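WARN retry 2 of 3 for item q-0093 after timeout on previous attempt; input resubmitted unchanged.
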Amino acid sequence: MGLANLVPGVSGGTMLLAAGVYPQCVDALARVTTLRPDRQSVGLLLAVAGSAALVILLLAGLVKSLVVEHRWAMYSLFLGSTLGGIPVLWRLIEKPEARTWVGSGAGLAAMVATSLAPASAAPAAEAPTLVLFLAGFGAFAAMMLPGLSGGYLLVLSGQYITILGAIEDSRDSLLAAEGPQWATLTDPLAILAPFALGCLTAVVGVSSLIRLLLLRQRAVTLGFLLGLLGGAVLGLWPFESDGGGPPLPDLARAVAAIGLVTGGFVLTSAIGRFGRDEA
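OK item q-0093 returned
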């Protein structure tokens, strides 16, 4: 989930679905944020959020560079990973109803509208606090919805490079060879603090809403998530031109892209089967 949230167009919620723990995570978040936690909920959230946060902290700089400089390869891999979540979600639906297809149409329409918005991976100008707060709210809300990418919403808002750069700068300041450099944390924290506040606000509101919808309107909600997941490929394909890296002949690039898409699909499907077996 941590890796998925670093990449525009890929949903962290898809990874939760693939592992077979999406409903449990939504329920656990809702319990914790409404001050009704139990030991199982807290343990699940610590395992998922802790490992995701560690990956984000350690790999934000690397993933940012790969997305900017080798976009076609990264998007190929995560296109396959996203598509691999569809059979996982389909197993949750079990018997689709008419309401399921209505929800799917609405989710697909939402992703089409999102894909039509202009996006750029270039760094944005210095953002005001409110913009950073809204970017955090949107990114975390999207993370809760399989198919809707928090990283892609950051790209749309122009804050993708800004946020990942601030995470990378914070890591470098804390892990400097001569010891933590507290003075250099001021600038990245000025960016990350309102962003984190937006994320926490989304945790409280969105998790409870999704839990309620899964309880009362499961068919429509799962259909909507299926539409989001299927439409997520619109944020990844067609691939944009790379920012760098060695060029490849068209045929070699196409073969490599197909291989990466297949590998991503197999990886997510395998995680889904493992998660189902463990459940």
